[in-house]
Amino acid sequence: MPDIKKTPHRAGKRQMPPASEAGKRRIHKAQVPDVPPGTSAPPSPARPASRCRVRLHDLRGVKSELGVLYRQAKTGRLDPATATKLAFLLNSIAAIVQSTELEQRISQLETRANAYDAQQIDRPTRQP
After folding, report:
1. Sign (positive/negative) of CA torsion 102, 104, 108, 111?
2. Domain-wise residue ranges, the chain
């Protein structure tokens, strides 16, 4: 057992072992299964696969998910072929979201225009 110098210490501070023992301390890390590069990791047996709570109802969410997908492919956590397929699907979702938003905006503009036209028709015209 290494010699630890006993020095007065303040409450809450631990005594540190000599520098020679510093490298022998254990660092607890999460256990990660060894996965070959270019493949995705299987779901953890301790935790069942759950649904992803990704918000894809607006372009900001789709953009964020594309960024996650890019980083996973770049680091090797996701197979590039799978990443390509998922990116294509996300681009399709982005196009649908964009079309839906444009349809809603056009509908709102048409409603305003119709209301404005109705007000103009209901008002009597002034005669000088």
Report:
1. positive
2. 54-123
Residue 71 sits at the vertex; the CA angle it makes with 66 and 76, to the nearest 5 degrees, is: 125
Mean pLDDT of 96-117: 93
Q: For the stretch 15-42, what's the b/e string if a residue is b when 16 or more beta carbons lie within 10 angstroms of its beta carbon?
A: eeeeeeeeeeeeeeeeeeeeeeeeeeee
Radius of gyration over every alpha carbon of the chain, rounded to an integer in angstroms: 31
48-85 tens-digit pLDDT: 455 667 888 899 999 999 999 999 999 999 999 999 99
3-state secondary structure the chain: CCCCCCCCCCCCCCCCCCHHHHCCCCCCCCCCCCCCCCCCCCCCCCCCCCCCCCCCCCHHHHHHHHHHHHHHHHHCCCCHHHHHHHHHHHHHHHHHHHHHHHHHHHHHHHHHHHHHHHHHHHCCCCCC
